[in-house]
Amino acid sequence: MCGIIGVIDKTREKMDGSAIREALAIMDERGNGEGAGYAVYGVYPDYADLYAIHVFYDNIAEPKEKVEGLLETWGMIEHDEEIPTHESGRIKKVHIPWRYFFRPNRKLMPQSDTPEDDIVTNLVMTVNTTINGALIFSSGKNIGVFKASGWPEEVADFYRVEDYEGYLWIAHNRYPTNTAGWWGGAHPFNLLNWSVVHNGEITSYGTNRRYIESFGYLCKMFTDTEVVAYLMDLLARKHKLSPEHAVRALAPPFWEEIERMEPSEQELNTAMRLTYGQAMMNGPFAIAVASHDSLVGFSDRIKLRPLVVGEHDQRLYISSEEAAIRTMDPAVKKISMPRAGQPIVGRVVA
Amino acid sequence: MIIGSRPLKFQVSVDHDQCMLCGRCVDNCSYNVFRMEDEKIKVNSRNCVACHRCLSQCPRDAIMITERPCDYRNHPLWTDRIRENIYKQAESGKILSGGMGNTGDYPIIFDRIVLDACQVTNPSIDPLREPMELRTYIGKKPKQLDITYGPGNDVQLNTKLGPNLKLETPIMIGHMSYGAISLNAQMAMAKAVSRIGSFMGTGEGGLHEGLYPYQNHMIVQIASGRFGVDVDYLNRGAAIEIKIGQGAKPGIGGHLPGEKVCADVSCTRMIPEGSDAISPAPHHDIYSIEDLKQLVLSLKEATEHKKPVFVKIAAVHNVAAIAAGIARSGADAVVIDGFKGGTGAAPAVFRDHVGIPIEAAVAAVDSKLRQQGIRNEVSIIASGGIRHSADVTKAICLGADAVYIGTAALVAIGCRVCGTCYRNLCAWGIATQQPNLVARLNTDEASVNVENLIHAWTLELAELMGAAGINSIESLRGNRDRLRGYMLDEQMLNVLDIKPVGA
């Protein structure tokens, strides 16, 4: 099950978190109260050019010192603080969420074209695989992920998401089967600019994981969703594919469709399937992927999970349920259901 | 005569109440087991190899064959086979030779691996009602695509793909040469793969002109003897395969006994009639990996870079590192032949004792290529003991792009795995060049059997994929999460990089 929702304002007009909280909560039937989360873009305007690194600490003694040591080695922490939380009935502060605004030292990665991104990626992989009691769950610029184990409205209240504003939100209501109750297992999953919410189960996970690991990404979250974030980072950032093409690599057309295409399209799609066959995702899924300038939604190639699109002027909504979109925007103008595998892309214009 | 007669390997008996004296057994047995005497079928059991040709032709089910009717004194170390081999060598002073695959009593890893299926959390996919894609491309793939995005929707693909073979099923037929097997056997398989959208290998025996109509589905092989090789041969094939080694006999060359080198084989191989065709152990122009690279590039030059070049090696201990070297040689695919692979003739000591199983070899090669970030440089073709669709599925999950079958295809056209391929007496017309025996194999009928077999396996593979919630073969390939080891030890699980059942 699981419920997903995302919204982008193409003119970068900001929205606070209250509407998406309601929308996510209307889909409680799709979750079970063991995980929910929100990702918001444009949330830290005062530190917009710094990497906002969110960490769950099991305690703030040992792991915190190690994480900060690593950060100081690779750059400079310009500001840090505990993320404000508000314990309520069901959600206890099992982990202590902390945030750092971090400036990597680009000189330390001279061999790279994108030294800062690579430093932060390496830090995320290193912390999450080697430091017990610390988990980086958000690492992009001007992006914040807020997630925990609980119902959507409880998690929203725990972080007071209505206090945050952004032009792009994605959120997730979880019914876990793999890692029940673990905060790190809640969605959205984030790496750098990429945040992912996912409803489904990726039956090709073994192939995708081994593919992405051969490019140096390490899958340590014990869940299949994180590969989506890494695959998007690989395809869109490193290989410079457009979001549409990155999605096409993940959920490509069937050969039968490719054979009916114009020659140039046929060549491109064949090349894509040959090159990125191991990135193709199989199994039932509906996914929304956010980055700084786009929100992309897509489903598996035979649409075994629901995906609905809503449009209202400069706003584009993607969700598991029409009801959620209508909760968020009762005046929504157009609701549609994309075909299997068809990418829905909302791009900022400004 | 110190040793004298040894116990019969097979005892043939005829039920004379059933026998109608039709004489079909006499006509069909190429090993001279049967004769008609005094209105009765008499047998010489000592000649029997259990090829079952007589049984298959007997209209009254009057023939029965029993294996090893005479017991040796049982001993766990000095088994019957060990003792018989000693007798043979004590008498002959020669290397023992044998046909077909490994006869050693090794555990079969495939049989200790189980597959997965979906329940509740994700739906299985029904191949009868949903698309199921088994199409497989064999060849080099780019590591990444270079696409230029122009104004508007202008998209330009700058990456050019190298030559790839397009397979409609990941099952090909491996290399069995003309000479080792008959032209009719090759023809039957060639017709089958042409119809099914797959490929077969020529082996190192050249390409007989009777097969030219099917050349677009044939992979031409270059082995150390260079039999039958010229530029015309190279250009006719859909792909070219350099054979370094063979799973049944790693480290040594091919053996074709002179009995099988008839006029036609001699012309196709470009060797004298009746001469033993013993190809050298190494390629004498390949003493190192850089030499292989030169040969790969020479073959590509000779064929204007239009054909993928495969390199076939036997699965030996260091197979992963060797394959990584091959992946950097410009080759488009690496064929790994495991130690259960078949052969027409091999020294038994090699067949039974040299090399490693295909399951471990494919897992090691796939992992090594991934570690080094060069998995897209080559496709992996697994061969050597692929017996059914579950073996195919498991091999692909472990990392193979496709498989070669050999023995299974021969069994589909009658082969009983009697292991006597090297004697030129194959009663089924498969592993012989005797015209009267070859004529027994009707190529059209036999091709239907081969096609049926591959088709049936392909259907089963599609069902297994659907049950696992996968609708495209790319998502099965290297998907070791969908395998579990059953009663495999921890080291083997680590090599295969799979979890045990229950985990």
Question: How would you describe this protein?
Answer:
The complex is a heterodimer of chains A (350) and B (503). Chain A has 350 residues and is of the alpha+beta class. Chain A is 29% helix and 28% strand. Chain A has one domain: Glutamine Phosphoribosylpyrophosphate, subunit 1, domain 1 (4-Layer Sandwich). Chain A has ten helices and 18 strands. In chain A, helix 1 (18-25) packs antiparallel against helix 10. The two termini of chain A are 35 Å apart. The model of chain A has no long low-confidence stretch (mean pLDDT 93). Chain B is an alpha/beta fold and 503 residues long. Chain B has helices at residues 24-28, 53-57, 80-92, 183-196, 231-236, 263-269, 289-302, 319-327, 348-353, 358-371, 389-398, 407-412, 435-438, 443-467, 490-496; strands at 10-14, 34-37, 40-43, 63-67, 97-98, 113-115, 136-138, 147-149, 155-157, 165-167, 171-175, 200-201, 218-222, 239-243, 255-256, 277-278, 309-314, 333-337, 346-347, 379-383, 402-405, 483-485, 499-500. Chain B has an eight-stranded parallel barrel with strand order 11-12-13-14-17-18-20-21, surrounded by five helices. In chain B, strands 6-22-23 form a three-stranded mixed β-sheet. In chain B, strands 1-4 form a two-stranded antiparallel sheet. In chain B, strand 22, helix 15 and strand 23 (499-500) form a beta-alpha-beta unit. In chain B, helix 4 packs across helix 14 (443-467) and helix 11 (389-398) packs across helix 14 (443-467). The longest helix of chain B has 25 residues, at 443-467. Classes of the chains: A alpha+beta (350), B alpha/beta (503).
